[in-house]
């Protein structure tokens, strides 16, 4: 696999760091999860009743687990020997936590000048907020993402999943790959500083230019884009109780939509308006079943689809035929279907080799010489 021979030490819990480590593990990296003795990653205990470890089973697939007490001199020395044989360190502890154990950047660089160290924290390093604790939902709010999620006449809402943490994991894996690529030229490792808000702030790239140059202070706009006239992106209730999402994101698709709505008698303005088109679209979809609405919109080259629930995804023929779910055998839950490695590399694809390890499963089994390059 692409990352065969790359050793990663994961000093991380919950979501951002572990998701980054999981992405690297899916493509062959040897990811060693360094966990607190006796308790381990808090994600081991997060989940609905009857499935407390099921989330962890997916997030920490392809990893190995070693229990340590960093305050114990022997364990501390053991971890430092692992550092010396590793290519990458991923950590998302609170700022300063690893320094007290001699495992900050200045320390690990001396132990291993070639190591790449990804340091994830709520607000990043430098700046007046650096020492503040930060979880994903705080980062979502700080990035501007929460401000534009929801409806104008209601408070902002969080997305129903760990958006900021997962985006941070993606950017973290991207940063690690960049640093490893550069190391091939220079022979030197480096530290990567990543705040949990950074990725979302980068992705909402238009918000500050629009405010400073156009005076637009973005507001919530329901299912539509946060400023009027940009696109038609609506989530419309259909007559059968399902929801149809429509995305007319180009001039051509907006024109197609308006022409169609005019032919149906639902659009009466002489001029084209994406705002009026969105209102007319909602009225039209409400009169039809979701299948009929999607079929007819697709016929006139307007992109539409249904809002899927887990029960829909689990039986969807496209998900199954494309291999978007992979079956993995687990001791506790039997066969568990979980998302396949992404992206799909045609020649050297990722692979799920095993589900998450038990706490301390690999104690005493790690080769201190390392497999890294």
Describe the overall structure.
With 373 residues, the protein is α/β, with parallel strands linked by helices. 34% of the residues lie in helices and 16% in strands. The protein has two domains: 7-202 and 321-339, Rossmann fold (3-Layer(aba) Sandwich), CATH 3.40.50; 232-237 and 243-306, no CATH class. It has 13 helices and eleven strands. The radius of gyration is 24 Å and the shape is elongated. It starts with 6 loop residues before the first strand and ends in a 34-residue tail after the last strand. The mean pLDDT is 94.
Task: Summarize the model shown.
This protein has 373 residues and is α/β, with parallel strands linked by helices. The protein is built from 13 helices and 11 strands.
**What is the number of strand segments?**
11
Q: Write the CATH architecture name of the largest domain.
A: 3-Layer(aba) Sandwich
Low-confidence segments: none
Separation of the first and last Cα atoms: 15 Å
Question: What is the H-and-E element order?
Answer: EHEHEHEHEHHEHHEEHHHEHHEE
Overall geometry comes to elongated
Q: Main sheet?
A: 6 strands, parallel
Number of helices: 13
Q: What is the fourth-level CATH superfamily of the largest domain?
A: Crotonobetainyl-coa:carnitine coa-transferase, domain 1
CATH topology heading of the largest domain: Rossmann fold
Structural class: alpha/beta
Radius of gyration: 24 Å
Number of domains: 2
Class of the largest domain, according to the CATH hierarchy? Alpha Beta
- Biggest β-sheet: strands ordered side by side in the sheet: 3-2-1-4-5-6
> How big a fraction of the residues is strand?
15-25%
């Amino acid at each position: 696999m692409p990352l065969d021979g790359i050793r990663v030490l994961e000093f991380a819990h919950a979501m951002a760091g572990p998701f980054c480590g999981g992405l690297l593990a899916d493509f062959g990296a040897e990811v060693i999860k360094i966990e607190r003795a006796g308790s381990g990653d808090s994600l081991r205990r997060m989940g609905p009743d009857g499935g407390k470890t099921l989330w962890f089973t997916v997030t920490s697939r392809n990893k190995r687990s070693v229990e340590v007490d960093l305050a114990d001199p022997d364990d501390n020395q053991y971890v430092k020997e692992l550092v010396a044989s590793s290519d990458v360190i991923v950590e998302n502890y609170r700022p300063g936590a690893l320094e007290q154990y001699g495992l900050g950047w200045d320390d690990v660089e001396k132990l291993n000048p070639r190591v790449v160290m990804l340091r994830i924290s709520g607000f990043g390093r430098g700046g007046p907020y650096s020492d503040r604790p930060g979880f994903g939902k705080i980062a979502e709010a700080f990035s501007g993402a929460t401000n534009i999620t929801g409806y104008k006449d209601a408070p902002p809402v969080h997305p129903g999943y760990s958006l900021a943490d997962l985006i941070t994991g993606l950017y973290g894996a991207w940063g690690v790959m960049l640093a490893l690529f550069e190391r091939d030229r220079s022979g030197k490792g480096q530290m990567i500083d990543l705040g949990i808000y950074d990725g979302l702030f980068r992705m909402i790239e238009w918000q500050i230019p629009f405010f400073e140059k156009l005076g637009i202070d973005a507001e919530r706009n329901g299912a539509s884009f946060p400023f009027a006239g940009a696109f038609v992106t609506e989530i419309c209730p259909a007559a059968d109780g399902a929801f149809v999402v429509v995305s007319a994101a180009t001039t051509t698709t907006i024109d197609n939509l308006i022409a169609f709505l005019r032919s149906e008698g639902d659009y009466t303005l002489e001029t084209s308006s994406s705002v009026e088109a969105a209102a007319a679209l909602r009225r039209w979809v409400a009169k039809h079943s979701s299948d009929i609405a999607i079929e007819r919109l697709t016929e006139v080259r307007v992109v539409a689809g249904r809002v899927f629930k887990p029960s829909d995804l689990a039986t969807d023929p496209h998900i199954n035929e494309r291999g978007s779910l992979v079956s993995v055998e687990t001791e506790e839950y039997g066969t568990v279907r979980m998302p396949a490695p992404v992206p799909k590399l045609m020649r050297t694809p990722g692979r799920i080799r095993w589900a998450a390890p038990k706490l301390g499963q690999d104690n005493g089994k790690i080769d201190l010489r390392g497999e890294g390059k």
